[in-house]
Amino acid sequence: MKLLLKIVVIALVVGGLAYGAREYYFRGRAGAGNALAFRTAELKRGDLVATISATGTVEPEEVIDVGAQVAGQILKFGIDPNGKSVDYGSPVEIGTILAEIDPSLYQSDVDQATATLEQSKASLARAQADLGQMKARFDQSTRDWNRAQKLGPSDALSQTDYDAYEAAYEIAKANVGVGEASVVQADKGVAQAQATLSRVVRNLGYTTIKSPVKGVIIDRRVNIGQTVVSSLNAPSLFLIAKDLTKMQVWASVNEADIGSIRAGQPVTFTVDAFPGRTFEGTVGKVRLNATMTQNVVTYTVEILTDNSDGALLPYLTANVTFNVAKRENAMLVPNAALRWSPSSPDLISPEGRRSPAAGDGAGAPGAMAGGGERRRHSSSDSPTTNPTGSNDAPKHAVRAGTIWVTDGDLAKPIRVRTGLSDGSNTEVMSQDLKEGMSVIIGEAGSAGAGADESKNPFAPQMPRGSRRGM
After folding, report:
1. pLDDT tens sequence across 275-314
2. CATH code of residue 261
3. Domain match, 366 and 320 both
């Protein structure tokens, strides 16, 4: 009897210890341990700006490519208004001599054309003089023929003389016509010689390269002694920026984002030459001639910016940020909060289990977050927007999502509508949200895998079901 009693007592003790160990394990895991298991962030209000990022190049607003219209050897460069030889960065005025090409061949053409013109003028003068003689002979033959007609063939005038006067008259008349034609021909010869002279004089003038505009030389592409050859295309000698106080940035924007770009849109950009400094500009226009590279379609957007201080240099690489939309005093949560969901139902509070959002909490929040947290700082992403946006911004679609807040030591889901995102924080809207709430962004301790997910969404993830056995 005593032995049986001892066995019963031992069994009760062992059972009590087992039950106590079980309760301690599960209550500790779902209760006090969760005070250190959750990583949280405070729900707060603030301003949010959705942006699109792109890369571009700083370009002068207007560039003039100065070429050569004649061939020859570069003899020397001109002198700029500062008294220095024309070179990179030289300021130039309209008509400033940039370079001179060897003019010897073109000068000889001018001399030859001048001589030809003088010869043509002499030929015209001779033709006019010959015409005068022919008209005098015609007048004489006309008078002789008139007298012969009065006398007629008779004893006073033989038939032979009569015919001779008539023939002389006709010949003189024809010679006047020939003389007049010769004068016209000589006159046209003078005009042709004059045109030839004008052409060779102009070619001679082309040997002196002059600036057509006021600006700054940003590129010199020839050296003294170099021979330029002008055939079908004029060779480029100098590149002149007309006005460096006004610059442009040519940015390549992905086709997925081009719908959010509009004229007059504010833009900020930085250049590596001036770290820490942000430049401002506005969108001028979107070029319609899209380019495709490896099946990626991009459009060139022209951004206008002021460069009165001359800090921006041509062809600097610019990191451009387009301000797509802005929210003021919006409720903001870290994007990690939209990705997180409990690894075990034991982490959900009793009130949270009764919430309609709890049915989506095990797997849906992370999926829903993909829409609400879409990155706006990448030029390859589409804009996420909100119908409450301002009139000058695109209208954005609202997406549903779920965030988890602390309920004691456990988690409780709240369904929200997500709006703009700047890549770090996302605008959320719900009547159940209050400023200062603790929003869960990850797990720590035994739920270390969940914490890693919140830090790096691209890291390999373990299936949800496997965590419950860990």
Report:
1. 999 999 999 999 999 999 889 999 999 999 999 998 999 9
2. 2.40.30.170
3. yes
